[in-house]
Amino acid sequence: MKSGFVAVIGKANAGKSTLVNVLVGEKVAIVSPKPQTTRDAIMGVCNAADYQIVFVDTPGIYKARNALSSVMEKTAETASRDVDVILYVLDGHEGVTDSDAELIKHYESIGTPMLIAYTKIDIMPKENIPADVKKLYDAGVTQDIYPVSARKGTNLKKLTEAIVGLLPSGEKVIQEDIVSDKSEKFMIAEIMREKVLLKFDEEVPHGIAVVVNEFRRQENGVYIINLDIVCEKANHKAILIGKGGRAIKEVSSFARQDMEKFLGAKVFLTTYVKVKENWRDRPSLLKDFGYRTGKADN
Ligand SMILES: Nc1nc2c(ncn2[C@@H]2O[C@H](COP(=O)(O)OP(=O)(O)OP(=O)(O)O)[C@@H](O)[C@H]2O)c(=O)[nH]1
Ligand SMILES: [Mg+2]
Questions:
Q1: Residues 21 and 44: beta-carbon distance below 8 Å
Q2: Does the pLDDT value for residue 296 go beyond 70?
Q3: 20 has pLDDT over 90
Q4: How does pLDDT run across 73-103, given as a tens digit for each residue?
Q5: CATH number of residue 90's parent domain
Q6: Mutation test of ligand 1: which of 31, 55, 69 has the most ligand atoms closer than 8 Å to its C-beta?
Q7: How far, in Å, CA of 279 to CA of 132, rounded?
Q8: pTM of this prediction?
Q9: How confident is the model at residue 295 (pLDDT cuts 50, 70, 90)?
Q10: DSSP 8-class letter at 280
């Protein structure tokens, strides 16, 4: 039996969460085309007869501009120090730059066994792959590079085998029936955040937090969910609500459908939009909204 922890690290929007969801076989982390979608380390477990891989999906590396980004950056850094393997995810479709090589070399220098997934090869010319691989090796990268597509499932078996090859021998580290370390309530808030990320542009979705005030199941099986979308500015609130409440109705409806799929039951969802000026720079609010402040040690 091989088993252990694998930190999934890389730039924002590289495709880390998509890859983790596919490898785990269940959606444990939300995904969007916007950078900084993942805000917290999220565990996703992949069980097989002779191995168990415990992925730790992390917030993408992105220039820290506020207290929330800097907490997110520390989360990735801490995760990379505490695992058996680092899986560095590189967006092949974006192309390789010097900063990619520098980041990869930074993680190599930690000394943890590591491999590189070069992803999104389904939407790029295949000819670019060898040139990018050469660029990385010329820049001093030494780890094995696996071209993959999470969307199409290309080369994922090879990647999994390579990860398993780097794991230590030993019993399962996580109980078999556990897929994620996050609660249903956390996923409910994340599903709402995903729909806001998909619907709105730029600063609006990045400035929101979702707070679940009520989450309970009635005797008839229906879930009653009541949540706040907290945004940073009054004009963001107006955008989120939309003319005649149309925008918020639409995102709530998409979110409710996904929540019903996730919970396997009907959901009665109530959504409010609130303003908390600059919450991303206020440590006490960060904590209230479920983001770790200070030492990211648990
Ligand atoms: N075509 C294609 N798109 C992909 C693939 N993997 C991810 N994407 C897309 O890339 C975007 C970012 O994916 P995420 O999985 O959210 O990326 P991430 O690295 O977790 O991003 P952060 O959490 O912001 O750091 C989404 O629009 C995905 O659908 C892939 O293999 N092929
Ligand atoms: Mg992510």
A1: yes
A2: no
A3: yes
A4: 888 888 888 899 999 999 999 999 998 999 9
A5: 3.40.50.300
A6: 31
A7: 40
A8: 0.94
A9: very low
A10: G
Amino acid identity of residue 104, one-letter, is I
CA 169 to ligand 1 centroid distance, Å: 31
Amino acid at 285: L
Shared domain check, 95 and 47: yes
Chain Cα centroid distance, residue 227? 21
Give 28 Cα–ligand 1 centroid separation in angstroms: 14
Residues 156 and 212 in one domain: no
Tens-digit pLDDT profile for residues 248-263: 999 999 999 999 999 9
Q: Is residue 296 part of a domain?
A: no
Strand partners, 272: 228
Q: Is the pLDDT of residue 69 over 90?
A: no
Q: Is position 110 within any domain?
A: yes
Closest residue by CA, ligand 1 atom 8 = 15
First vs last Cα of the chain: how many Å apart? 26
Q: Which of 16, 17, 18, 116 to mutate to test ligand 1, by most ligand atoms within 8 A of the CB atom? A: 18
What's the full length of the chain, in residues?
Answer: 298
Q: Which domain holds residue 64?
A: 2-166
CATH of the domain at 280: 3.30.300.20
| H/E element, 132 | helix 128-138
Please determine, for residue 191, whether its predicted confidence score (pLDDT) is greater than 70: yes
Q: Which ligand is nearest to the CA of 198?
A: 1
91 & 154 share domain: yes
Mean of the per-residue pLDDT values for the chain?
Answer: 93
8 CA to middle of ligand 1, Å? 13
* Ligand 1: lining residues by beta carbon, under 6 Å: 10, 12-18, 31-33, 35-38, 59-60, 119-120, 122-123, 149-151
Q: What is the pLDDT of residues 176-190, one digit of tens each?
A: 889 999 999 999 999
| 197 Cα–ligand 1 center, Å | 13
